[in-house]
Write a structure and sequence with these properties.
With 223 residues, the chain is of the alpha/beta class. The protein has six helices and seven strands.
Amino acid sequence: MSNLAFGLLVVATLPFVLLYVLQDRMIFPAPNLERMPDPPAGFSEVTIETPDGETPFGLFRPPCSGRPTIIVFHGNGDAAAFQHAKADALTRSGFGVLLAEYRGYPGSTGSPSEAGLYIDATAAYDFVRTRTPGPVGAYGHSLGAAVAIHLASVRDLYALVLESPFDSLLAVARRHYPWVPAIGKLLKHPFRSDQVISDITAPILILHGADDPTAAIPSLSLL
């Protein structure tokens, strides 16, 4: 192979290699916090143990008597420690709340992955079950909506709220990177919510804005 042909091959394949290698950082851009913010009023910091040995961070407040507990799953560039607004709104209505963190995110061990986040979600649910006998629901935002959908497919939720969900990360990738015909083979974390949501029996509320600036930006890091 000539030097020119080799150079052209490198130029042609480099974007695909970079997309494969860097996708974990693009999909899971965990904030780097030097200091954890103070927890919302009435919340305690908790450590949740997963079956595979990780210890995700969480912020927990028990419910008022007889009320459900809501597990909140944040978006990919966010953190559980930043979910004060949702925590305040839910606790004012008497709900218990677990602001669940993912592995590899602030306060948690491990490295994030689709399979890992699913394990963390079920561990969060099982944790809540050890703390309160009442119903458990889930609130997921963006990537967190995909996590909540998976949880609803494997655990008994009384309600599921999805804020700005996507049908699958594979579909998002295909929309943002149409010049990569083999994106399905390169994507390690497809988050195929579209394949499981029809099996969910819990009531579902979907919240979506008509003017979503994130959807117009060709970057997976903003999901």
